[in-house]
TrEMBL record:
Its cofactor is Mg(2+). The active site is at residue 115. One of its GO terms (molecular function) is nucleoside diphosphate kinase activity. It holds the Pfam family NDK. CDD domains: NDPk_I. It comes from Phragmatopoma lapidosa. Belongs to the NDK family. This is Nucleoside diphosphate kinase. The keyword Zinc does not apply. SMART domains: NDK.
Length: 149
């Protein structure tokens, strides 16, 4: 099964949206494989956002992301990388559709409360950066044949 890396950013934690965001993935039928609640240092965030290293907002972004606890998670299920991005909504909340996480809860690009991997390849890299193999739970969700045909 496909896996993706979803993270609730410090602004999402501060605004009390942790439960709501997790619930959307649970309700959809996706399976939680790993989760933490922890503040990470700037060096770790610089590694996470390494592909954006040449962008002018990179230092500010990494500083903000390390300013408080975040909720990094791994979710598993059919097409979860693409669907996770769709559930988050467009990067710029002003372009996110209502009904998406960003479209329901935020306004500013620099305070868009969540992160989602943009491809299976980045998902694998991000999962490896944020979690040790032993932190990925191997379990079956008792959904029977009610989520997948
Ligand atoms: P993520 O799921 O957070 O990775 O969003 P994304 O993949 O849709 O966007 P991208 O990876 O290009 O950018 C990562 C994050 O940097 C975004 O979620 C924004 O919070 C922030 N960001 C992106 N572009 C800008 C920008 O032009 N200005 C500022 N201030 N922040 C930006
Ligand atoms: Mg991205």
């Amino acid at each position: 099964q496909e896996r993706t890396f979803i993270m609730i950013k410090p602004d999402g934690v501060q605004r009390g949206l942790v439960g709501d965001i997790i619930q959307r993935f649970e309700k959809r039928g996706y399976k939680l494989v790993a989760m933490k609640f922890k503040q990470f240092d700037e060096a770790h965030l610089k590694q996470h956002y390494i592909d954006l290293a040449d962008k002018p907002f990179y230092p500010k972004l990494c500083k903000f992301m390390s300013s408080g606890p975040v909720v990094p998670m791994v979710w598993e299920g059919k097409d979860v990388v693409k669907m996770g991005r769709a559930m988050l909504g467009a990067t710029n909340p002003l372009q996110s559709n209502p009904g998406t996480i960003r479209g329901d809860f935020c306004i500013d690009l620099g305070r868009n409360i969540c992160h989602g991997s943009d491809s299976v390849d980045s998902a694998n890299k991000e999962i490896a950066l944020w979690f040790d193999k032993t932190e990925l739970a191997s379990w079956s969700m008792c959904t029977g044949d009610n989520v997948y045909e």
